[in-house]
Amino acid sequence: MKEVLIQYMKRFSDLSEPELMKLTEDIPVAVFKKGTILLSQGDVPDKCYFILKGCVRQFAVDENGNEHTYQFYTEEQSVTIFSEQASQYSLGCLEDCTLIVGDLTTEQEAYDMNPVLETMTRKMVFEDMGTMRDEFSSFTSSTPEERYQALMDKRPELIERVPQYQLASYLGIKPESLSRIKKRAAATHLRIVD
């Protein structure tokens, strides 16, 4: 399973595969059942994750008890909420997940032992931040139909992996609106194919 991590790390390092394998020897891998809450809203984050297999949802519950989905993380994505205060978000496993688990409280020790790991992590974080910034800019300036189309273009697997009401929340619309958008998109696709 760590082969997924090693392939990902190759993008951010000039280390050889044997060097990367040695670097990942002591990295803990854990399996979590579908429904497991990795972080509860209001708790202080002390772990970070890298997804080898599965899907994790970032969400929050507002003062009226309504859930709002902010992100879905899948294979080869890191999941970290950097905060020394209570988290505004929860993280939950939507599927059985195999995750690499990092301890934020001992992160600096790991970097001190493996300086190359710190450089690699910094590159990974910058890439993630750039992607999130671009997605947020696109999201705020697009219509619900455009958001759905962007999801279909960039992450179509989520349509089958995620409950519709959570997808609708992620897209900033009601489930009924998502159903209408999907029907219109399917009808348009049929016309194009015919």
From TrEMBL:
<dbReference type="Pfam" id="PF00027">
    <property type="entry name" value="cNMP_binding"/>
</dbReference>
<keyword id="KW-0010">Activator</keyword>
<protein>
    <submittedName>
        <fullName>Crp/Fnr family transcriptional regulator</fullName>
    </submittedName>
</protein>
<feature type="domain" description="Cyclic nucleotide-binding">
    <location>
        <begin position="11"/>
        <end position="86"/>
    </location>
</feature>
<dbReference type="InterPro" id="IPR018490">
    <property type="entry name" value="cNMP-bd_dom_sf"/>
</dbReference>
<dbReference type="InterPro" id="IPR014710">
    <property type="entry name" value="RmlC-like_jellyroll"/>
</dbReference>
<dbReference type="InterPro" id="IPR000595">
    <property type="entry name" value="cNMP-bd_dom"/>
</dbReference>
